[in-house]
Amino acid sequence: MRNLRVAVIGGGPAGTYAADILTKEHPGAQVDIIERLPAPYGLVRYGVAPDHPRIKEIVKALGRVLAKPSIRFIGNVEYGTDLTRDDLRQFYDAVIFATGAMHDRPLDIPGIDLAGSHGAADFVAWYDGHPDVARDWALEAESVAVIGAGNVALDVARVLAKTADEQLSTEIPDNVYQGLKINKATDIHVFARRGPAQIKFTPMELRELAHSPNVDVLVHPEGFEIDEGSEQAIQKSKQTRMVCDTLLKWLDNEPTGKAHRIHIHFCAAPAAVLGEDRVTGLRTERTELTGDGTVRGTGEFTDWDVQAVYRAVGYLSSPLADLPFDHAAGVIPNEAGRVHDGGESLPGTYVTGWIKRGPIGLIGHTKSDAAQTIQCLLEDLDQLPSPSSPHPDSVLTMLTSRGVQHTSLEGWHQLEAHERALGAAEGRERIKVVPREEMITISSDSSAKDDSEGAAA
Length: 457
Known about the structure:
Layout: E1 4-9, H1 13-25, E2 29-34, H2 43-46, H3 58-66, E3 71-74, H4 85-91, E4 94-97, E5 103-104, E6 117-119, H5 120-127, E7 143-147, H6 151-161, H7 164-167, H8 174-181, E8 187-191, H9 203-208, E9 215-219, H10 228-236, H11 238-250, E10 260-265, E11 268-274, E12 281-289, E13 295-304, E14 308-311, E15 315-316, E16 334-335, E17 338-341, E18 344-351, H12 354-357, H13 366-379, H14 392-401, H15 409-425, H16 436-444, H17 448-456
Parallel strand pairs: 1-2, 1-4, 2-3, 4-18, 6-14, 7-8, 7-14, 8-10, 9-10
Antiparallel strand pairs: 5-15, 11-12, 12-13, 16-17, 17-18
Helix pairs in contact: 1-13, 5-6, 10-11, 15-16, 15-17
């Protein structure tokens, strides 16, 4: 079989799965995973709430993939800045873009840009210690609105409702702990536009809301509609049934005097964020189910006294240099993973993950998506243009000549050991390092591993 050198742009689950499947299906394949951050794992490290240890178990599986001899991790390299598409053509037979979606989908309602109105993705990046976001986050609102009916909305509500000390057992960095420690929020209102059978919560994430000893979960009966279409949805989906059963159980909850409360509202569509200079409220419109899973407005409005609003209405991918982009759908145009521009396929250029299909589905869903893309790549094998500089060192030589301080898998292992040593000193599993410069220094320092092991001892 033809030897094959492939670059995967993006070191999250989608890109890592694609590399794994390709090297299994094609023994002659060598894959470089090129990631803009110094550390791998993408969404798992910087998009999953820190109190989700079971979900983060996926890191172990991804780590086994990165350890394969046929796969190389190259971190702290940004496509479009440090490397261009023309550069990649010199070194690789094919390129798979798996850059995901890290920005918030906009919500076009009056007042959404007021101070105190935030995108959930920005907040998630803050509490996950993303190196490219501000270290501080103002948590001065006592009453907060979270707009959205998916797991990210639940994550935001849960992080805002739980005490800082409850979350100290996770890997949150010190700046996040200090920020949460002065959080004034007591009431977090989650607003879903549709009914309980149409929301996108998963059962485990929903039940986790009630795990805190300091939080009451209150489901408001207004708008809690289950029509004939909802009944059919419940019968067809075990997950929907489990979600509705949990919500029905909480429907009778009364406040017990706990310090914090999460309120869940259904059939309440955001209409406007209220305020002049900053958020002073949220206006919602009561909706009603139409029988087919959609809703229509009733013209009945309610104003809620909140001082901050978080929109969790979906993620949005960003355009990439020298590639076509569908701004409406937020994806790179493709057919089964083959990138096309105006109907013409771009030779040797593929996509997988959210940049391919939009930000839908759970992390595990990216496996089948990656398999489809890899199948297309292998079908195109005979037509792939051969690179002019295929030697594995060529791309590293070019990066070094441009002053790009790239990180490696060994460097990641050093950083990980350092984070675990920091955690061990505090009786925690890990404390995440936040500043990019510090991450790079630790990843590049051959003595970091010894220092970390000494600290752990």
